[in-house]
């Protein structure tokens, strides 16, 4: 019976050998992980707290082991910076998952990555790498490859993909690679279900071999240089759930059989040169989002669209579509927006798009829709945009529409609407633009307009409005009291007796006196009338009286002034609080210049005729500077004025008067005379200050 101890001994030594081996391996792994830790910096996460030499590596946060070997490193979304030591990492020869996406990693990807041959999952996406991607062909076990939006450039090693026959996900988009044809190496990856190649410089045609990728559920090729037609073979991709082709150079019609893609939920082929009609799409009943704007599609919108049970976003603006919209379009799901602007559509506004109370945008500009606005929109409180200008719509605006609480923009211009703007507009707490020009609206502007505290622009021109501009309009100055920006409000008014553009320049300044008895932010606003006018200073001065008061501001009142030729002006009388404002700086700030982005046909401020720059003026003094600049064509500071002198000291010297102190300046009457003499037909702006001076501005 001596065999037993021997056996035990053997087993023991075997065990200890094994333990010893494991220990050694782990010691190597530990060293590698500590190298990774020292290469990467993390300021906002504590992922590395557990990465200490006295801890077993398999217990480190983000590390997964299998049978004692490290198989996975997941450090994604950990605010990491630094560059990746692939020479160390790829010594972990059991590593199958390396997930480093959504960090701030930089530097190049070194060729050492080719040693990570066991990798099945590689995520380097959403980082700040540089340089080109090295050869990846040894990584033939990859199933998931994310390198999207990570700063890679140069030629991608497309041929490396041919060996990755098990690849399920390939995401390389949003990198400035060299231009390349759609890579043939992808066409053999028949397991692929996710292909993201948007915005990474793919050019040429979509190859017919795309039809090989029958497992695809997502195919994204947008923002590229792809031309030619959509290949007929695409209709073999019956599992497609999302197809994104926007912003390319695609031409031609939808291929026959496209309608076989009946699992499509999101389809966007906007911004191409596609033509033909939409009849292939009538069987795509699962569509949630359909965007085809900026193309050359014609024909009618298929009636079947009215039965699409999931549709929430529908944007086909700027095509050549004709006929009516399906009556029930948008009535089934939690509809979000429709933009069918700039087509040749007719018929009525579909009444049920806000049935679920979720609709945010109704954009149907520039078609030939007719009939009335359906009353169903009266309680569509989710609406932020209601824009139907330039159609043949008529009737009275259903009550409730004016006062929708989230509506930011109501645009009814260029129709045949009638009736009045009703007092419920006082409920419109978000309304910043009211565009109702060129209709048959009538009646008074209700005083409740003053409760539309977000108002920036209102255009009432070419209607039959009557009565006065409500005195309460002056209260609108409360608007931007919390804002540090300069804003400008415009009012166009036309009652066939007067046509008026009031421009409320609201500007805010910090009190130069610091914490005085006035608030830190002191506002003033100027009202100018941009019109060719003729008037005398006395006409203006004499009208500055209580009877004509139409508004009160923090630093002055606004008066209605009827001048001799019958024109009405709004004139701001500013209390001079700081006559020596020479130190005040002027700057030009952009206003409402933000682009509305590619996904909407909505116009920005510029296309409404609102200038995208507004001059910030701290007080009447600098306003005067602006006027003088405009009229004289000179800049505020120029060498010819002399050292430390500006346009204000220059203008009086031109007038042969001396001195910089306000009292010694020429009267504003003489400035006005001078300006009139200089530009007799360009007198357009007026501002009255406490000393009775008036100035003019050329527009
Ligand atoms: C981009 O990469 C991230 C991982 O970094 C991934 O979650 C995301 O789905 C990828 N985007 C696309 C469109 O493939
Ligand atoms: C693909 O893998 C085989 C061996 O598995 C290798 O011989 C070939 O060179 C690889 N192809 C590429 C493009 O790397
Ligand atoms: C396209 O990719 C670049 C990086 O190459 C990125 O900066 C840009 O934002 C992407 N464009 C879009 C529309 O996402
Ligand atoms: C399509 O797949 C087949 C095998 O399924 C393959 O033989 C063929 O080469 C592929 N076509 C392209 C264009 O890669
Ligand atoms: C896309 O089409 C436009 C207009 O037809 C053309 O000017 C441009 O060169 C085309 N670009 C490409 C990459 O084909
Ligand atoms: C569409 O599918 C039907 C049946 O599933 C099939 O008969 C037809 O050939 C397909 N059309 C195309 C163009 O793939
Ligand atoms: C509809 O479009 C809006 C705006 O682009 C987007 O935020 C929303 O996610 C889309 N809804 C669906 C279901 O795609
Ligand atoms: C509007 O009122 C009608 C009738 O009361 C109701 O059926 C509908 O759901 C309401 N819509 C919203 C958005 O509240
Ligand atoms: C109104 O629409 C017509 C086309 O129907 C267009 O020619 C015209 O320019 C549009 N008017 C405005 C002011 O947008
Ligand atoms: C618009 O439709 C009306 C009928 O509703 C028609 O009288 C008018 O001619 C149409 N206008 C255009 C430009 O087609």
Automatic annotation (TrEMBL):
Alphabetic keyword roster: ATP-binding, Glycoprotein, Kinase, Leucine-rich repeat, Membrane, Nucleotide-binding, Receptor, Repeat, Signal, Transferase, Transmembrane, Transmembrane helix
Domain named Serine-threonine/tyrosine-protein kinase catalytic: residues: 612-651
Signal peptide bounds: 1-27
Keyword Disulfide bond attached: no
Gene Ontology BP annotations: defense response; post-embryonic development; response to other organism
A GO molecular-function descriptor: protein serine/threonine kinase activity
Residues annotated as domain Disease resistance R13L4/SHOC-2-like LRR: 159-297
Domain Leucine-rich repeat-containing N-terminal plant-type: 27-66
Domain of life: Eukaryota
Topology within the bilayer: Single-pass membrane protein
Binding site for ATP: 572
GO cellular component, one term: membrane
Ranges for region Disordered: 578-600
Subcellular location, record wording: Membrane
Pfam families, alphabetized: LRR_1, LRR_14, LRRNT_2, PK_Tyr_Ser-Thr
InterPro entries tied to this protein: Kinase-like_dom_sf, Leu-rich_rpt, LRR_dom_sf, LRR_N_plant-typ, LRR_R13L4/SHOC2-like, Plant_LRR-RLKs, Protein_kinase_ATP_BS, Ser-Thr/Tyr_kinase_cat_dom
Protein name, per record: Leucine-rich receptor-like protein kinase family protein
Species, as recorded: Actinidia rufa
């Amino acid at each position: 019976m001596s065999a037993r101890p021997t056996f035990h001994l053997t087993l023991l030594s075997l065990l200890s050998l094994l333990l010893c081996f494991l220990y050694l391996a782990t010691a190597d792994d530990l060293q590698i992980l500590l190298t990774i830790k020292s290469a990467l910096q993390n300021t906002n996460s504590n992922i590395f707290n557990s990465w200490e030499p006295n801890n077993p590596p398999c217990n480190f946060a983000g590390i997964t082991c299998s049978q004692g070997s490290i198989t996975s490193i997941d450090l994604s979304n950990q605010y990491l910076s630094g560059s990746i030591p692939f020479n160390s990492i790829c010594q972990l020869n059991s590593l199958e998952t390396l997930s480093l996406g959504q960090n701030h990693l930089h530097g190049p990807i070194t060729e050492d990555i080719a040693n990570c041959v066991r990798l099945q999952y590689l995520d380097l996406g959403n980082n700040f790498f540089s340089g080109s991607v090295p050869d990846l062909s040894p990584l033939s076990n990859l199933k998931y490859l994310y390198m999207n939006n990570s700063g890679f450039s140069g030629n991608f090693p497309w041929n490396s993909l041919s060996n990755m026959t098990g690849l399920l996900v390939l995401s390389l988009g949003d990198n400035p690679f060299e231009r390349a044809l759609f890579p043939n190496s992808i066409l053999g990856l028949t397991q692929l279900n996710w292909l993201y190649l948007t915005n990474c410089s793919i050019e040429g045609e979509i190859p017919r071999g795309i039809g090989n990728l029958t497992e695809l559920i997502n195919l994204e090729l947008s923002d590229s240089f792809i031309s030619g037609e959509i290949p007929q073979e695409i209709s073999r991709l019956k599992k497609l759930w999302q197809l994104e082709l926007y912003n390319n150079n695609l031409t031609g019609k939808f291929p026959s059989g496209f309608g076989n893609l009946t699992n499509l939920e999101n389809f966007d082929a906007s911004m191409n040169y596609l033509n033909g009609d939409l009849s292939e799409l009538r069987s795509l009943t699962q569509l949630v989002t359909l965007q085809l704007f900026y193309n050359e599609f014609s024909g009618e919108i298929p009636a079947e669209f009215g039965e699409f049970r999931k549709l929430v976003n529908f944007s086909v603006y700027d095509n050549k579509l004709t006929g009516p919209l399906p009556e029930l379009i948008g009535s089934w799901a939690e509809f979000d927006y429709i933009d069918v602007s700039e087509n040749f559509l007719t018929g009525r506004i579909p009444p049920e798009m806000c049935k679920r109370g979720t609709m945010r945008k109704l954009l149907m500009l520039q078609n030939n829709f007719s009939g009335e606005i359906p009353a169903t929109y009266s309680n569509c409180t989710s609406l932020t945009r209601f824009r139907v200008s330039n159609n043949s719509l008529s009737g009275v605006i259903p009550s409730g529409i004016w006062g929708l609480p989230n509506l930011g923009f109501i645009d009814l211009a260029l129709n045949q609407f009638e009736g009045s703007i009703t007092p419920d507009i006082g409920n419109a707490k978000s309304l910043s633009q009211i565009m109702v020009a060129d209709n048959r609206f009538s009646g008074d502007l209700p005083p409740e307009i003053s409760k539309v505290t977000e108002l920036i622009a209102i255009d009432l021109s070419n209607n039959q409005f009557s009565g006065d501009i409500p005195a309460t309009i002056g209260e609108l100055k409360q608007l931007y009291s919390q804002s540090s920006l300069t804003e400008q409000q415009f009012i166009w008014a036309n009652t066939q007796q007067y046509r008026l553009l009031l421009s409320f320049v609201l500007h805010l300044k910090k009190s130069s006196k610091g914490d005085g008895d006035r608030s830190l932010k002191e506002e003033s606003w100027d009202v100018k009338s941009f019109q060719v006018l003729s008037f005398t200073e006395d006409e203006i001065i004499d009208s500055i009286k209580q009877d004509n008061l139409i508004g009160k501001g923090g630093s002055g009142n606004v008066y209605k002034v009827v001048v001799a030729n019958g024109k009405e002006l709004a004139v701001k009388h500013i209390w001079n609080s700081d006559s020596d404002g020479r130190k005040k700086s002027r700057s030009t700030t952009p206003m409402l210049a933000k682009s509305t982005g590619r996904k909407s046909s909505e116009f920005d401020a510029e296309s409404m005729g609102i200038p995208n720059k507004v001059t910030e003026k701290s007080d009447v003094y600098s306003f005067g500077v602006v006027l003088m600049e405009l009229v004289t064509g000179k800049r505020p500071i120029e060498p010819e004025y002399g050292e430390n002198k500006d346009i204000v000291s220059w203008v009086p010297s031109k007038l042969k008067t001396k001195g910089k102190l306000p009292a010694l300046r020429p009267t504003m009457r003489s400035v006005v005379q001078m300006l009139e003499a200089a530009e007799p037909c360009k007198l357009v702006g007026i501002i009255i200050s406490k000393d009775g001076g008036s100035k003019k501005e050329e527009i």
